[in-house]
Amino acid sequence: MIRVLVVDDQELIREGLALILSAQPDMEIVGEAADGVDAVSRARSLEPDVVLMDVRMPNIDGITATRRILRDQPNCRILVLTTFGADDAVINALRAGASGFLLKDAPRRSLVAAVRAVAEGEVLLDADVVGRLVEGLQVPPATSSSALEVLTPRELDVLGAVARGLSNAEIASELGIGSATVKTHVARLLEKLHVRDRVQLVVFAYSAGMVPRG
What we know:
Blueprint: E1 2-7, H1 11-22, E2 27-33, H2 36-46, E3 50-53, H3 62-72, E4 77-82, H4 87-95, E5 100-103, H5 108-119, E6 124-125, H6 133-136, H7 144-147, H8 153-163, H9 168-175, H10 179-193, H11 198-207
Parallel strand pairs: 1-2, 1-3, 3-4, 4-5, 5-6
Helix pairs in contact: 2-3, 8-10, 8-11, 9-10
């Protein structure tokens, strides 16, 4: 079971999220929190696998709460879920260690898929905000295009799908290959492109011009 802590300062939103996720056979809502301070405390006592974290909350915001939770529990996964899609929120959430950023108006199926993806250790970003990472993280594009020459056609397919925010399961379905094969391709991409994680793969793909911006 994926143990989920829901954090939002609006009670109706917390209840709605809990209702959606608790209906999934592989998910369990272990608690709710109404602000960042409560989120840090409950995460420490409940030890959830995934925290659904709002950004704008009283006492301390979701980004600060994310840093504090991951400092004590580095294996916890934080999925930022918010209506606030400004560039600085995206960048700061990822810098704080969040595993994903999803807007609250995303479809229900996207929310469920996102929780499963981050629980499996993936980085998941909403397609509407992922393009902002290139400028926000100030990635130089000069060497990106030439570096693509070391990739196989299938690795290019996987890189493009990662850049569009697809999870491993979605990539496997789209390309007609197994999830284990996708994981192998992602690992090879990280090695060949000399990047640290999935977020940097996304930034690389955008800086190389693989994904149209805007």
